[in-house]
C-alpha cells in the first residue's frame, strides 16, 4: 500500500466525518421544524409562511448528504479491494497534450465471503456493463495518465477489474482498432445519469472538477465559472491550459459530463 493510497483514503474518511456532522445539523433542524409544526400547525396557513418549503428543502438536503456518504463509502470499499494485488496492469496509451486535445475533436472456496455491503458494491460494479464511464488510462510514453471516455464491457468479480474499451479508434493503432483496458475501480468514475438530475452532486462556482472537453472524448481539469443552469443543465467551465488570446474561454459542458476532481489529480 503506497503513501498516496493511504493519503487518499484518509481524505475520504475526513469527508465522511464532515458529511455525518452535516447530517446531524440537518436532522436537528428537521426535528425543530417538526416540533414547531406540531405545536402550532396553523402557522402554515399564515400569508408568507414558508415552513413547508423549508422542511422540503431540509429533507432534500438530508437525502443528498446520505447519498454522498454512500458514494464515498463505496469508493473507500473499492480502494480497499483494489489494494489487494490482482491481475496485471492496464495497457498503456499515447499522450494527449493541449494540441492533441483538439485532434480528438469529432472525432469459490478460495474466495472470501462478502458482506452485504460488499455484495451491493459488486452488484453496482456489474451494473455498469454497457455504460460509458470516465477512466484513467496509462500513456505509452510513461508520462502522466489521462482520463478518457470508455465503455464498460465486463466486471470481473475475482480480479476486481473492469474490462473497458475506448470506442474512438486510436490513431496509432493498426487499422484504427479500438483500445481495450483492464482497470481497477479506483481508475473508474461513473458519469451522472440524466434520470438522476435531481440528486446529482452540485458543483458551485470556483470548484475544480474533471469534465469532458467539448467535442472530444477526453476529460480535463476545469474550474466552474457558473453553476448548473436549470433550463439547459449545463455548467460554464474554464479548462486548464486552454488559453486563447491571453485568456481562458468559457465553455458549456452538460452536467452529466462533469464529475468530481479525483484526489491527487495531476493534469
From TrEMBL:
Gene3D superfamilies: 2.30.30.140
Pfam families per record: SGF29_Tudor (PF07039)
Keyword terms of this UniProt record: Chromatin regulator, Coiled coil, Nucleus, Transcription, Transcription regulation
GO cellular component, one term: SAGA complex
Compartments in which it is found: Nucleus
Main location: nucleus
Comp. bias regions, Basic and acidic residues: 96-111
Protein name (record): SAGA-associated factor 29 homolog isoform X2
Annotated organism of origin: Nicotiana sylvestris (Wood tobacco)
Amino acid at each position: 500500500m503506497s503513501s498516496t493510497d493511504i493519503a487518499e483514503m484518509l481524505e475520504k474518511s475526513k469527508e465522511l466525518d464532515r458529511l455525518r456532522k452535516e447530517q446531524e445539523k440537518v436532522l436537528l433542524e428537521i426535528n425543530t421544524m417538526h416540533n414547531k409544526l406540531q405545536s402550532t400547525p396553523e402557522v402554515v396557513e399564515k400569508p408568507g409562511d414558508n415552513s413547508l418549503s423549508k422542511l422540503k428543502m431540509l429533507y432534500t438536503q438530508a437525502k443528498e448528504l446520505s447519498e454522498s456518504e454512500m458514494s464515498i463509502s463505496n469508493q473507500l470499499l473499492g480502494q480497499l479491494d483494489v489494494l489487494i494485488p490482482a491481475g496485471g496492469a492496464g495497457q498503456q496509451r499515447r499522450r494527449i497534450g493541449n494540441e492533441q486535445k483538439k485532434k480528438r475533436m469529432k472525432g469459490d472456496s478460495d474466495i472470501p465471503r462478502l458482506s452485504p455491503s460488499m455484495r451491493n458494491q459488486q452488484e453496482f460494479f456489474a451494473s455498469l456493463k454497457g455504460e460509458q464511464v470516465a477512466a484513467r488510462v496509462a500513456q505509452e510514453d510513461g508520462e502522466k495518465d489521462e482520463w478518457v471516455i470508455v465503455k464498460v464491457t465486463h466486471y470481473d468479480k475475482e480480479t476486481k477489474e473492469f474490462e473497458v474499451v475506448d470506442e474512438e479508434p486510436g490513431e496509432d493503432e493498426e487499422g484504427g482498432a479500438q483500445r481495450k483496458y483492464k482497470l481497477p475501480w479506483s481508475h473508474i468514475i461513473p458519469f451522472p445519469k440524466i434520470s438522476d438530475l435531481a440528486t446529482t452532486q452540485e458543483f458551485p462556482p470556483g470548484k475544480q472538477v474533471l469534465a469532458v472537453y467539448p467535442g472530444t472524448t477526453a476529460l480535463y481539469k476545469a474550474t466552474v465559472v457558473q453553476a448548473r443552469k436549470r433550463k439547459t443543465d449545463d455548467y460554464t467551465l474554464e479548462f486548464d491550459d486552454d488559453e486563447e488570446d491571453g485568456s481562458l474561454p468559457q465553455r458549456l459542458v452538460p452536467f452529466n459530463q462533469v464529475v468530481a476532481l479525483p484526489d491527487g489529480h495531476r493534469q
